[in-house]
Design a protein that fits this description.
This protein is an alpha+beta fold. It is 65% helix and 11% strand.
Length: 316
Amino acid sequence: MLKVALVLSMLFQLGAAVYAISLIRRTRYNVSWILISLGLVLMAVRRLFDFSSLFWDSKLFQQEEINSWVGVLISVLIFIGVIFIKKIFNLQDHIERLRLDNENKTLAAVIEAEDKARQSFARELHDGLGPVLSSIKMSLSAIDPSAMEQKNRRIIERSCLATDEAITSLKEISNLLSPHILENYGLIKAIRATADPLLEGTQIQVEINSNISDRRFHRNLEINVYRIVCELINNSVTHADPGYIRIDIMEEQHVISLTYKDDGSGFDLDNGLQDKVIPGMGLDNIFSRIKLLKGQYQIDTSPDSGFIITLKIPIE
């Protein structure tokens, strides 16, 4: 049994040594891996010394000291190799940081491209369609209703009302695509101005609390927090049928704390996360923006128990 065990041990150690040597190139000839590979080779050689004593009267090498010195050398090689192996871990950490940095840059580029497309589309609507509607309104206003029959007068009045509604809708769409209020007046006023049209025609009451007042932050933070809040309000109106929405935006020790709460239908969070969070709710987009801002979030929701999300976003 001892002979079989030694044979298997020797074969395992030879296999480990050969495999370790074959990986040297993949480690780009890292010193620590070379030293550990040499240690494994010497361990296999030392096992060969022990194995030979079971089959021959004398060992392959008569000097007992050689076996001992080989053991010492193995210990030294393994010790130095383990010390140097830290470089491999540092390299892995560096690669991981580069991966995360590239991932964040890609995400930032996608969101920035999306925002630029929104701005471009809003500008085209405002500068292209806006003047056309204004021209139609001016032409209709120039018509003298008193010189018409009652039927035609009603048509003109309806056309003027429809044109006014189209101009108002155009302004609202343009502002949602590229929030001019956000750029001119800041985050809180932009959210208040956007919440009113989104909740118009509903019985939903909204409460917005904040301690940042008119304070301005860098555009990347403002535009992403604004988009997050707009998406959350839209989700509540579309999916949750709430009667009440509360939004708290506070600055605490260089951190923006945002808590959004509604008393709507809520949803099963565990199943929602497994299904990549309820298709159509846009939460994936919200999570991407939070990640871009290096923030953290916590969600508390369940069926018929409302929805709460708390964000912590560092101010850079």
